[in-house]
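testing teh design pipeline on a random one, pls ignore if ur not involved
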């Protein structure tokens, strides 16, 4: 990894966007966090971490009603678990704008909260019955990244715990950052 950049300061110019709860910020639905020590130590020693919390930044509040993804008329929707309020379009619009901002500001990768209806790379779709086979999808914020910026490296904190996956992710981040600097 050190061979990809010539100096420590150059490595720290590389930005990786991180779900805020993983950085110890109290932005979760219950006002809690999911501090990921490996991320805030080992990964932070190599890159600059940029915090984002889609649900809080959208204005859903802290604490807030939990949201889940469900199928409705053949489409994935993000709804409040108690009120049923549909946040789908607001989240998609916000995510499109925010991801574009982050990429334009130099984001070279994303570390996202596993299972989150906004950030998860694999998210269970709530079903109406127990007999239905479980289905999964991608959280709405993560989907926006994949849709418009498929070349940007993504990982969730669960896979970041695996040394090989973490190294592969970081190498991809550094390679992406170098390509962006060189105008590729």
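output:
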């Amino acid at each position: 990894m050190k061979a990809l950049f010539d100096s420590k300061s150059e490595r720290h110019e590389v930005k990786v966007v991180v779900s805020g709860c993983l950085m110890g910020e109290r932005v979760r639905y219950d006002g809690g966090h999911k501090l990921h020590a490996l991320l805030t130590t080992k990964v932070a020693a190599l890159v600059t971490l940029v915090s984002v919390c889609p649900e809080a930044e959208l204005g859903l509040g802290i604490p807030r009603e939990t949201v889940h993804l469900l199928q409705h008329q053949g489409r994935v929707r993000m709804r409040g678990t108690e009120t049923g309020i549909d946040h789908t379009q607001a989240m998609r619009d916000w995510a499109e704008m925010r991801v574009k901002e982050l990429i334009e500001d130099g984001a070279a990768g994303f570390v996202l909260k596993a299972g989150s209806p906004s950030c998860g790379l694999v998210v269970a779709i709530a079903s109406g019955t127990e007999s239905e086979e479980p289905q999964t999808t991608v959280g709405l914020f993560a989907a926006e990244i994949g849709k418009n910026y498929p070349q940007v490296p993504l990982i969730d904190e669960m896979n970041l715990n695996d040394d090989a996956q973490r190294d592969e992710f970081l190498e991809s981040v550094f390679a992406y950052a170098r390509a962006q600097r060189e105008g590729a």
